[in-house]
Amino acid sequence: MSACATPRPSGSPSERPTDADPTGPNGPSGHVDSPGHPDRPDPPAPVSSPRPGERLRRSLRGSGPDGVRAADLSASVSVFLIALPLSLGIALATGAPLQAGLVAAAVGGIVAGRFGGAPLQVSGPAAGLTVIVAELIHLYGWRTTCAITVLAGLAQLGLSALRTARSALMVSPAIVHGMIAGIGVTIALAQLHIVLGGSPESSAVANVLALPGQLADPRPAALTVGAVTVAVVLLWPRLRGRAGELTRRVFPAALAAVALSTAVASLAGLRLPRVDLPSWHSHALPSLPEGPVLGLLAAVLTVTLVAGVESLLSAMASDKLTVARKLPEHLSGVRIPRADLDRELRGQGLANMVSGALGGLPVTGVAVRTSANIQAGAVSRNSTILHGVWVLIASGLLVGLLELIPLAALAALVMVVGVQMVKIVHIRSVTRHREVLVYVATAAGVVLLGVLEGVGIGIAVAVALALHRLAHTRIVCETVGGGGPDGAGGVHRVRVRGQLTFLAVPRLSRTLGQVPEGSRVVVELGGSFMDHAAYETLRDWETSHTAHGGSVEITGRSAPCVQEPSASHGCTPWKPWRNHQCTRPHPGEGSGEVPVRSQLLGGLSNFQRTTAPLVREELARLAREGQRPSQLFITCADSRLVTSMITSSGPGDLFTVRNVGNLVPPPGTEASDDSVAAAIEYAVEVLRVESVTVCGHSGCGAMQALHDSEADGGALSPGTPLGRWLTHGRPSLERLTARHGSAPHPGPPHPGPRAAVPRIARIPGAEPREAEALEALCLANVVQQLDHLRAHPCVARRLSEGSLELHGMYFHVGEAQAYVLDDPGNGDGGGMPAFTPVRPGAAVV
Question: What residues form the membrane-spanning segments (predicted)?
Fold first, then answer.
């Protein structure tokens, strides 16, 4: 049994996971309780079983496993009442046998509901496939269409095995929404003819051309039934009050519309075509496909992709709806997992194979029924399965009642659904993202030519639009300030809006050429992409402009690409973090401060989002091979000293030891610190580093405390951890005072190594500092800790072998300037050491 297995929960039954959680005690079987499971002990037997009346009351209240079953049972009935008329209407719209819609609804509920990856998604015949199926029936006949459905299901199984579900979602939402809108328009035009009492034509264009003649000669009976259906569908959701809410919950709009229009037609004695469900004995089953091979392959591919994408989009929408809703308190412990898209595609493939084999329509996830299922309170896949069972039962027991429904009522219902597929929210979304052209092109292509052709047109327009955006770059130059000719004395701002590719290089070169020599220039890069040609152009111009006495500052999203140095190692510089804008969340209203914890978590989030993908491969290599640093770096714990920044190092480069004051306690003292000594021994003996660097810095708090203690007559407090630790820095203070001719600090002698003449360090040519005495102590401390370092046996042995080097380093925080000790005394012990500043581009060994 896995160590990560979820333990069996305790407490009330309502806290147990349901089948919505695949790791729960019900497992994949869909049962809430599974006594006798080999991996779990059976629950203790209850003292007394509840009486039948109490069990009924629990079910009605919705508590415990019975409550879960009650929630799913109620939701399944609601979805069934919506699915039944819609399935008949979609079958009517495709020209398939009406029973094919019922078969697809039952199979979609039972098979896709049981094996799919979205527990609350409801599958069945969908309006999105209506135009495709109608065209297939017209070209190949119903039996061959059923065979195409089986093959499409098999193709979906293959795609799920290849785990390509996520890649199917790379199609632009504008194309998907445009396809759905085009299908909706086509459905509405075709069903409008049936509502008017006529018959639809074979295409949307033919339906539009025939519409004036149909309007001139309507059938009053069909028009009356259609008008009643449309009115009820549109007005039913507007019922208000508790009575209206209860009515809408018990009788969904689709069921109410069909029921009322059927009642009107029966009571008024209207003579018009009605539902005709032939005997199941004569139900048409699939046959071997007949037709051109390429045409059949295109048909299978179309059904596979359209049904798959629609199902996956619906599954993702079900996740959002599930998270957004609020469950009742008695169901608050129920966990509903996120959709597994590959499993969902596998379930849809199985459902399509079964539906096609039984003479049903293609199956796909249906957003309308899924939304109704979630809003009705479903908490597991049992509601979806039960809704399929109810459709199956109704297909056998309610045939007489279903045959009373006028075809005009079903046509009006599907016509409203088609109109509602053109969603205003989708149009606003694509307009906001400047993709309305893709949306319109796809929708028009679907209406005029067909689904596959329309999607192809949408993809072509989307690619052309992306290329246009990539190639269309706006570059302007303006001068801010300066009253001289050509803007002399001012700042020249070159603004680039768009992506910098080779197509924009001529405009970029021409604009940069207009900038006067020796001027100050700020280049603002507004795009997120820059190719090599643009990079070389901008880089060469920057080098030339700087060489002629000008200054260049490059800002914007693409700035780091240009600021990358030309050194062979290819390291990128430290990126700006001013005010921690990349990690600090926006403060709340009226608050000027942000908790440190929020900033830390913001930094972690920023790392996972931006940096982790870039370093994951390198860290994986280090995890496999282990660490092999070349240097031991001993420095202060001061938060202003960022070792990776000042050394341009990355993971695996430095073995770093940080402590207060960058101290190296010598061996053999009473207050010796084993932690630092252990780190030195591990780095020198085990990791076999090639060098050890001791790095001090300006404004060191530890050195300030030592300096103040000297001024106060040795007022260090040895009774505290900090006081005991700072005693390791007293030799540095003694070194400094001895060099200046002062008496050593009183106190017990320190056993650390001493040179005959203490060597202190200096910065040649440096101007006097505000805290010159403190800086002198910080410099002396670096030299003193190097002496302590040599006293460690492992270091002394490696130094004698010539396989280890020692380095001293000093970093002035306020000036962002690094200094290197030019004579660290790798065993010679003489000379007057000096700290030499590191210059840009210098090769420092």
Answer: 73-93, 100-120, 140-162, 174-196, 221-239, 251-273, 293-317, 384-401, 407-425, 437-467
**pLDDT higher than 90, residue 164:** no
Nearest Cα to Cα of residue 94 among 410, 336, 491: 410
Instruction: Tell me how crowded residue 530 is: count the other CB atoms within 10 A of its CB.
Output: 22
C-beta of residue 839 within 8 angstroms of C-beta of residue 825 = no
% the chain with pLDDT above 90: 23
Q: Work out the number of other CB atoms within 10 angstroms of the CB of residue 260.
A: 18
User: What pLDDT, on the 0 to 100 scale, is given for residue 84?
Assistant: 85
Task: Give kind and range of the element (H or E) at residue 79.
Answer: helix 64-94
- The amino acid that residue 34 corresponds to is S
96-105, 244-253, 377-386, 552-561, range with the lowest pLDDT:
552-561
In the numeric block, which tokens belong to residue 255?
A: 């069921």
Written as six digits, the tokens of 165 are 């579900």
Residues 6+ apart with CB under 8 A from 135: 450
What separation, in Å, do the N-terminal and C-terminal C-alpha atoms of the chain show? Answer: 56
Q: Mind listing the pLDDT tens digit for each residue in 430-487?
A: 888 888 999 999 999 988 887 778 888 998 999 998 888 777 788 888 887 655 544 4
Measured between alpha carbons, how far is 711 from 797 in angstroms, rounded to an integer? 39
Cα–Cα distance between 448 and 458 in angstroms, integer? 13
Per-residue pLDDT tens for 79-88? 888 888 888 8
For residues 569 and 122, which has the higher predicted lDDT (pLDDT)?
122
* Sequence-ordered list of residues with C-beta below 8 angstroms from that of 110, at least 6 positions apart, any chain: 385, 388, 389, 392
Residue with tokens 């539902």: 275
Please check whether residue 255 is in contact with residue 84, taking contact to mean a CB–CB distance below 8 angstroms. yes
Strand, coil or helix: what is 95?
coil
d(CA 834, CA 823): 7
| Reduced DSSP (H G I as helix, E B as strand, rest coil) percent helix, strand, coil of the chain, to 5 | 55, 10, 35
Pairing type for strands 474-480 and 491-497 reads: antiparallel
Q: What's the rounded Cα separation, in Å, for the pair 434 and 445?
A: 19
- The residue written with tokens 């039952």 in the block is 106
- Sequence-distant (6+) residues with CB within 8 A of 425 are none
Spatial separation of the C-alpha atoms in residues 298 and 210, rounded to whole Å: 30
Q: Which residues pair with 655 in a beta bridge?
A: 632
Number of other residues whose CB lies within 10 A of the CB of residue 426: 18
